[in-house]
Design goal:
This is Exodeoxyribonuclease III. The chain is α+β, with helices and mostly antiparallel strands and 269 residues long. The chain is 20% helix and 26% strand. It has one domain: Deoxyribonuclease I, Chain A, CATH 3.60.10. The protein starts with a strand and ends with a strand.
Length: 269
């Protein structure tokens, strides 16, 4: 059974709906993990997605967070939020949703940004990643293909940012954040590293400002970590840079790109 799974921080599912649905038609994924929905539960575009054959499980609160799993191969055992997910300012933010999609189980994750080292949000980020590690232990050790996908807001290595000298003392590259990813992998997960296309390092994020995409001033912060049954089935993985490419100047706002590109993984199960 061939299965295509993708993860994409869409930076507002309603604002970019035409771009997203067009990509779904052209790329034809079976399962898609989305992050940064930026919509209320009532505004989630269930009908347009259903018209393309996708069921949806999501968490959203109308602010800058939100995560979803879209599936056209079944959607069962839905879990909203991580077990024992930490709060920030007394709120359980909508950053994680898990679901079983046909033969695989996935989590769509939008890891907190952290803002700056030493900030309360940075401490929250580290607690959140520890809660993630605890949440995946059972599924990672099982025989069913399992993966966590999403925007981790962590660049695992220095080469995963365009110029490490500009990130000294900053979030996304700190030792504690990188260690948290290493600890996550100790639960039985391995990274599905995308193959290089135009550039050696497959960045997944480029700032809108100062021609970040055009100059390839990017970061590799969107990741897929799978257990052994998942990674053994991988036949290809790549970052779809075309989905990040700016549209025509006269294109409608709904066709504007996210600042992230989709990461696509093909499996043969």
């Amino acid at each position: 059974m061939a299965l295509r799974i993708a993860t994409w921080n869409v930076n507002s599912i309603t604002t970019r709906l035409d771009r997203i649905t067009g990509w779904l038609r052209s790329t034809d994924p079976d399962v898609v993990c989305l992050q940064e929905l930026k919509c209320t539960p009532e505004a989630f575009p269930t009908a347009p997605l259903r018209a393309l054959g996708y069921e949806a499980a999501f968490v959203a609160d109308g602010r800058w967070n939100g995560a979803a799993v879209l599936s056209r191969v079944g959607l069962e055992d839905i879990t909203h939020h991580l077990p024992d997910q930490p709060q920030y300012d007394g709120v359980t933010e909508p950053r994680a949703v898990g679901a079983t999609c046909g033969p695989v189980r996935v989590w769509s994750l939008y890891v907190p940004n952290g803002r700056e080292v030493g900030h309360a949000h940075y401490a929250y980020k580290l607690k959140w990643l520890e809660a993630l590690r605890a949440a995946v232990a059972t599924d990672a050790a099982g025989s069913r293909p399992f993966a966590v996908l999403g925007d981790f807001n962590v660049a695992p290595k220095d080469e995963d940012v365009w110029d490490i000298s500009l990130f000294e003392g900053a979030t996304h590259v700190s030792e504690a954040e990188r260690t948290a990813l290493i600890e996550l992998q100790k639960e039985g997960l391995s990274e599905v590293y995308p193959r290089a296309l135009k550039y050696d390092i497959p960045f997944t994020f480029w700032d809108y400002r100062q021609l970040g995409f055009q100059k390839n001033k990017g970061m590799r912060i969107d990741h897929v970590y799978g257990n052994a049954p998942f990674t053994a089935a991988v036949t290809d993985s790549y970052v779809d840079r075309e989905a990040r490419r700016p549209g025509k100047k006269d294109a409608p706002a709904s066709m504007a790109p996210s600042d992230h590109a989709p990461l696509v993984v093909d499996l043969e199960l």
